[in-house]
Design goal:
Blueprint: H1 36-62, H2 67-85, H3 94-115, H4 119-147, H5 152-155, H6 189-212, H7 219-240, H8 249-270, H9 274-302, H10 307-310, H11 324-334, E1 338-340, E2 343-345, H12 352-361, H13 367-372, H14 381-388
Antiparallel strand pairs: 1-2
Helix pairs in contact: 1-2, 1-3, 1-6, 1-8, 3-4, 3-6, 4-7, 4-11, 6-7, 6-8, 8-9
């Protein structure tokens, strides 16, 4: 897959980016007929779009000069986020969508960890990956418990369903989730894009769990969503702290638009559904237009060359394929790693503050332990049970 230069293509001008209500209600993907990675792309791209809205509103609170262009781009990205999110079909139960969210976290973070050129940042991605891996196992147990369904119907065999770093052990004091940031002057474009991408994905997951959790009547389900939502907040803290806090508002905006361009390009190059691929190509052109607008603002306001921030070329496109072998290797080697301040400890050493925090949270037991008690995923769970009950 050839690399491209971010600012070489002008894309679709902002004034030509229009939508109708029919556009905003596309035909959804098929839960069973479409490849699972089509849904992975949908969820990831919705995450980057909703994060674009979040970042845009935040910048507008602090910068009056950028409020109008931010609002103009934000309106388009609101509609893009709607279209992408509406691609998830209504026959997904909230728990099935949860399973899909965790597959996104595992497969995308695993690929990023392998492509990340900075060893420290790559370690941070591997560290969080093993926690999302355990979340998939816990939610798969809940899906079996509440709906009698096999999570493999959603993940289609691409991702293993086995325990990772136990969720009960993932709770840390806040200071042990803050990481060392990359240096804006020397970091590669890939490092900047990876941090923006994974932060967006984890933020979306956190918000989804916070919204969905209260809708369950089952007390263990409610507690499990509360527990894992807390870990997702920790993940947002970890990944967002990888970004250099010295970046200007325009730098942050430029990097985010470049990340959106990168993801739509990756999605268009790998999408197996022609109708949805056409949508990724359309939105790639839109995001190229947004990127050109922000690049011009950087030149006009900060008198800086955007290529200094983006290093001209995009990193290699995401492949969107199973990372099973890599994840198994990381699980075997690093499941015992823990965090201490900004560093990762192979010995499992942790701070007194983290140990006290975890003991307090788990004083009455761990929902993630409770939901997985006596559960072990086996292939063909639903069919096996039906035959046994005949």
């Amino acid at each position: 897959m050839p690399q491209f230069r971010f600012l070489a293509d002008s894309g679709t001008p902002l004034e030509k980016q229009r939508f109708s209500w029919k556009d905003l209600n596309p035909k959804p993907l098929s839960k069973l007929d479409d490849d699972a990675f089509t849904r992975v792309r949908v969820i990831l791209l919705n995450g980057i779009e909703t994060d674009a809205l979040r970042l845009s509103h935040l910048i507008a609170r602090f910068n009056g000069d950028l409020r109008v262009p931010l609002a103009q781009v934000r309106r388009v990205e609101q509609h893009q986020a709607t279209i992408v999110n509406w691609l998830v079909s209504a026959d997904h139960s909230p728990l099935e969508t949860t399973i899909a969210y965790e597959q996104v976290a595992i497969e995308v973070t695993a690929e990023v960890a392998q492509n990340e050129p900075d060893p420290y940042l790559a370690q941070a991605y591997r560290f969080g990956l093993l926690e999302d891996f355990d979340h998939l196992y816990r939610y798969s147990a809940l899906l079996d418990r509440l709906e009698g369904k096999d999570a493999n119907n959603i993940i289609q065999g691409y991702t293993d369903i086995v325990p990772g770093r136990p969720t009960r052990d993932e709770h840390r004091a806040p200071q042990d989730d803050v990481r060392r940031p990359y240096d804006r002057a020397s970091a590669s474009t890939a490092s900047k894009i990876h941090a923006a991408m994974i932060t967006a994905a984890e933020f979306q997951t956190h918000d989804y769990y916070m919204n969905i959790g209260p809708l369950f009547a089952d007390p263990v389900a409610r507690q499990l969503y509360a527990e894992i939502a807390s870990i997702e907040e920790q993940h947002v803290t970890q990944y967002s702290s990888l970004e250099d806090p010295g970046e200007t508002f325009l730098e942050k905006w430029l990097i985010h638009e470049a990340t959106e361009v990168y993801l739509y390009d990756s999605a268009a190059k790998t999408e197996s559904n022609p109708r949805i691929r056409a949508l990724w190509e359309r939105f790639l052109d839109y995001e190229l237009g947004h990127l050109q607008l922000v690049a011009k603002l950087m030149k006009d306001i900060e008198r800086r060359d955007p290529d200094e921030v983006l290093n001209a070329k995009a990193p290699p496109a995401l492949a969107f394929k199973s990372q099973r072998r890599f994840v198994r290797d990381v699980l075997a080697k690093e499941v015992g790693f823990r965090a201490l301040g900004t560093e990762f400890t192979e010995s499992g050493e942790e701070s007194a503050e983290t140990l006290a925090y975890r003991e307090q949270l788990n004083a009455s037991g761990s929902p993630s332990d409770a939901v997985a008690a006596n559960y072990r995923w086996t292939a063909g769970t639903e069919l096996t049970r039906r035959v046994a009950n005949l």
